[in-house]
Each structure stands twice: as C-alpha cells, then as structure tokens.
Hints:
With about 120 residues, the protein is mainly alpha-helical. The protein has helices spanning about 1-5, 15-35, 45-55, 60-70, 80-100, 110-120; strands at about 40-45, 75-80.
Amino acid sequence: MISMLDRDMSGTLGFNEFKELWAVVNGWKQHFISFDNDRSGTVDRQELEKALMNMGFRLSPQAVTAITRRYSTRGKITFDDYIACCVKLRALTECFRRRDTSQQGFVNFQYDDFIQCVMSV
C-alpha cells in the first residue's frame, strides 16, 4: 500500500502521502460496506463482482472467479483481503495503462517486462 502512494519513491510516506492513503482506505471501507448486502462483514463473489463493476473494472466472470479464489476463504472476502485485492488491481491496472498508449485495452509485453510489472506489485 505504501508503494501505491509513495510519490517521491522514498520507501516511506510523508504526511500528505499518508493523508491520501487514509482517504483511499476510507473510500474502500465505505465501498466495501455498501456492497456487503447481507451485512456479514464479508463480500461474496456476486457482491465483489458488483463492487468491481462499480469501480469501473470490466472483468470476465472467469477473472472475477479467479480473484475470488485468490482473496477469499470459503468464498467470503474479509475487508483486509478486499483492501489487498484493491491494491493489487489498482497497481496492475496502472502498469497496464502505462503500456496501453492507445487506450484500446490491449498491450504487447515482452516476458521480462511482464515479470517486472507483476513482481513490482
């Protein structure tokens, strides 16, 4: 999470960077609560799919299922895991967008570039 908002690449967050992180986390908390329809303190696959769509992610059912498997325990995603999921999606999306210069949703990666992108998240 720190690297997501560490604008000066210092490895730490200054006060303004921390304020921004706090605002992002609070936004995700409100978002999580709004999609936790049964008020269980977790979101299931269907709730996650709606939340991701609301955030602008257009993912296939297979991608949502893969994300759910990665971040859930018995099909339920806790808030902490939801945050981890959001951080990963945001970082991967930023990495992809930097390479999608025509904004068409397609990029060509060399293997080494792909590995650097994925491992830096």
